[in-house]
Amino acid sequence: MRHGAWWAAVLALVCGGAVAAERIVTLAPHLAELVCAVERCAQLVGVAAYTDAPPQAAAQVRIGDAFNVNLEAVVALRPDLVLAWDGGTPQPTVERLRRLGLRTEAIAVRRLDDVAVALERVGVLAGAADAGVAAATRYRQRLQALRRQYAGRARLRVFYQIETDPAYSINRHSPIHEALELCGGDNVFADLPALAAPVSREAVLAARPQVVVHAQQEDPAQIGRYWARLPGLAPADPAHRVVVDANALTRQSPRVLDGVQALCEGLDRVRLSVAR
């Protein structure tokens, strides 16, 4: 038996069988995307704030954001399955929902590989085990293809920049760090003490990044002014800056690979610039 089918069968036994959920509420944006990826989008009746894809999920009733769930709104929707974000949804919220008699399951995604496992689990919980296995298989194949494609690329020292005054960056526990590693980028601030922390210009000078990566939500004029004050570093040249869709890059669903691929392509463009 293939790994995916075996895992789905185990989950089905653990979860008491694949009973199709007809009214699903998700407590974080990526959970709605996972539900839709296993072909149960039509069963969504409530989603968290900032759920923006796919359109069918984005159109559903909002039940608060990932960290502040409106319990009354959830109960009013009469769900037969609530999907919580393991590590995001406050544990007291999960416990309260369960005490209210709502079937509430926490879905954990920490790394890129975990998305496939989450697809299989959501498939079983939602009564769509076969669709979950199929979605997980497609995801694993694409992730493996990206890893093969970008293995052996020349390493680049990368500063993932958030804002400018002060600038922040991310450490090795951020999902963006794993994406950088896959694409052949070395996160120059991997050892920061917090997931995201401020970095001084002196620290940036000492790190000597070859590339700056920032979200498209950042003001390009402010980014330009920041680097104009650091003329001795490569990212002072706009050709050494990569703009990414941080929403896709941090979304713990199959869409994360769209963000990873775009990041890898951006770093490849910098490599070409360096080689000239």
Automatic annotation (TrEMBL):
Lineage: superkingdom: Bacteria
Pfam families given in the database record: Peripla_BP_2 (PF01497)
Residues in Fe/B12 periplasmic-binding domain copies: 23-271
Coiled coil: none
InterPro entries per record: ABC_Transporter_SBP, ABC_transptr_periplasmic_BD, Vit_B12_bind_prot
Signal peptide as annotated in the record: 1-20
Cross-referenced NCBIfam families: TroA_like
The protein's name in its UniProt record: Iron complex transport system substrate-binding protein
Organism of origin: Fontimonas thermophila
